[in-house]
């Protein structure tokens, strides 16, 4: 027996928090009876559960790691007909990306049908490191690198402290390869941080998400997460808080 909101989240309908709101609003029924109390436990395999009058699908939770190529949308569909991340994974389940990577950014992205898991990883209070490698036009100064480490003031507020490492510099072409580790997930954050210092990002790749990396994968390839990896993510999301 599991809590009703957890079963709804695992079915990929919405996050656990939003599922709780739906329950309180009387939009969830179990075996034909409206349920408004939180904490009700159900049998996910036997009880008939409906959200807004629609039966939930009892999908087993699945978890994938995809090496997203540049030029791909971090969504399940695109009204302009462009490739989306779900195009690369043949899954019977209704999977969706955990967070997003910009259209022009490549690298590691997770996909799942587990709404609770996705919400846990994306919650702002959970400080899961994300490692990016950027090729920028120009060579940042020590003072500018310190600014990145201390936090850059953007239009939506100052960024949290980051880890910064210059991997290489091409003085002839005046370009640099810089590794940046952050735990926030603001829209186009890495690009905006460099742009705030006057540097154009020519290429951007997310190489790590928490303890996961892209070892053994090429752009467009994916692999399922191991159960121990899913368990470890749940553990670090709970223990690492900003």
From TrEMBL:
EC numbers: 5.4.99.-
All copies of domain RNA-binding S4, residue ranges: 2-60
Coiled coil (UniProt feature): none
Pfam families reported in the protein's UniProt record: PseudoU_synth_2, S4
Stored CDD domains: PseudoU_synth_RsuA_like, S4
Keyword Nuclease annotated: no
Superkingdom, taxonomy of origin: Bacteria
PROSITE patterns: PSI_RSU (PS01149), S4 (PS50889)
Family, as annotated: Belongs to the pseudouridine synthase RsuA family.
PANTHER family, alphabetized: PSEUDOURIDINE SYNTHASE FAMILY PROTEIN-RELATED, RNA-BINDING S4 DOMAIN-CONTAINING PROTEIN
Protein's name in the database: Pseudouridine synthase
Record organism: Alkalihalobacterium chitinilyticum
